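Could you please consider the sequence and fold appended to this message?
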Amino acid sequence: MRGAFTGAIRNKVGLLELARDGTLFLDEVGDMPLSLQAKLLRALELRQIRRVGGEADIKICARVVAATNVDLPAAIDAGKFRLDLYFRLSGFVIYLPALQERREAIPILAYEFLKRAASAFGKKVVSISPAAMSRLIHYSWPGNVRELKHAIERAVIVSTAAEIQVDDLPEKGFQNVELPGDTLDLRQSERSLILQALLESKGNRSIAARNLNIDPATLWRKLKRYNLDVPKRSRTPDPSGPLSGQ
């Protein structure tokens, strides 16, 4: 409230009040100081707040969504996070594994970020070479999805061709990635991913490309690369089958 402390020259609505009947997103809630955790718990329990310097309680109706990369049970054991607040926030929990634990999602995410970056920077980059994709898949990704997004953006900016190459990736980390003895596993994984998308779209290449977050032209090139002749809306090969020519 105005005059509550030095510099408070006007009344100011806080975020819990400002959210009204909407949603308040609390990012990195695991890093919240214990003193603030107690205040948040009280607000969530009573569904009301009081402005600093105010005399009346204000009802709040906002839905609260919280996110963190901290292991909250471990933080509770260490005395860094309140158990009661954890139970108050964990009414419905969605666990999202680290990117290195779901490597099958890397090609889909990489092509989505590629499409966005190419559009944002006005570059005609439409695909990622098998060697570059292999490094993306086998990299440890300590920065998770944000790091992947930034790596693809950087690669799009420096690329001088229509396809991202290994040299376009950030030098730190990617040039020393330990790769398997050959690229068969990578090719088989990408082939299976494409065939699965075609199965789900009943052979419709446009829908399959959209579900894979790649351009139809990119999908066509990959079908040619793997010597896959899959007519629209037809029966597709068994994704577990061998690569053509193997």
